[in-house]
Amino acid sequence: MASTRATHDRSRCRNCGFEAPGGDDDWQRIEVPKLGRMTQCPDCESTDVITSR
Description:
- The protein has 53 residues and is mainly beta.
- It has one domain.
- It is 8% helix and 36% strand.
- It has one helix spanning 5-8; strands spanning 10-13, 19-21, 28-32, 36-40, 49-50.
- The longest helix has 4 residues, at 5-8.
- The radius of gyration is 11 Å and the shape is globular.
- The chain starts with a helix and ends with a strand.
- It comes from Natrinema zhouii.
- This is Small CPxCG-related zinc finger protein.
């Protein structure tokens, strides 16, 4: 199975399936003590996100 650049440039929420370009302003960023900065889904607020960047 061949992968494309478009696939690599997108991040996806593993909880609800929301997708947007990695690093895009659509994603929320939160600071978590002892873990640092994390990406958060704007739809379901999950931090279980597969990031591309």
